[in-house]
Amino acid sequence: MSDSWDSAAPEWDTDVAVRAYATAAMDSLRRVLDGYDLDLDNAVVCDFGCGTGLLTEQLAASVASIDAIDTSLAMLEVLDRKTADHGWSHVTTATEIPTGRGLHDLVVCSSVCGFLDDYPGTVDRLAGLLRPGGVFVQWDWERVAGGDHGLTRDEIEQAITSAGLAGCKVDTAFTVEVYGEQMAPLVGSGQRSSGE
Ligand SMILES: C[S@@+](CC[C@H](N)C(=O)[O-])C[C@H]1O[C@@H](n2cnc3c(N)ncnc32)[C@H](O)[C@@H]1O
Predict the structure, then answer these.
(1) Could you state, in chain order, the average pLDDT of each consecutive group of 10 residues for the chain (196 residues)?
(2) Exposure winner among 53, 60, 146, 174, fewest CB in 10 A?
(3) CA 132 to ligand 1 centroid distance, Å
């Protein structure tokens, strides 16, 4: 079945702005994880809305495994080719969120949550993947007053908190140039309590 993102897949990795976004997201991730005392080394990761895997590729060097999830088969085909080229058996792709509960150390969602039909419900499902102490992190454009794209700080905080995650933080993540304009996406995060 064709997906509305399929047509973007072949050229996705040639877009300077999306590459810069993914690199900045990786730097932002290291800062966020410092705050939760979670080490990327040997982490079991779910990269939800992975696209062609621009963030997946950066994570792959240090983590134990990555479940890379995306509804666009064309995006996943690009990632599958890169994974095969690298010989990475620890990176697997799928169109559905994994069913196992409490097995992941980290869930990352880079520029996908603002496109979801059911954003809070999806965060709830993704939070269920986390083991106690595991961390959820998302990056999204900030929706401005009157805008029809992105998420507000309140929406992010509410979704993360309602999903039962503790220590929710929502901040400006970084600045990135997008077609000549400086843009500042948000990063939202929360942690599954160790006592659960
Ligand atoms: C803006 S792209 C970001 C891709 C990638 N994270 C990156 O930063 O390069 C959004 C991605 O979210 C995926 N997506 C949209 N809705 C989704 C859903 N319900 N479940 C999983 N992936 C979804 C799209 O197919 C697309 O690859």
Answers:
(1) 90 96 97 95 97 98 97 98 98 97 97 97 98 98 90 97 98 94 96 85
(2) 146
(3) 26
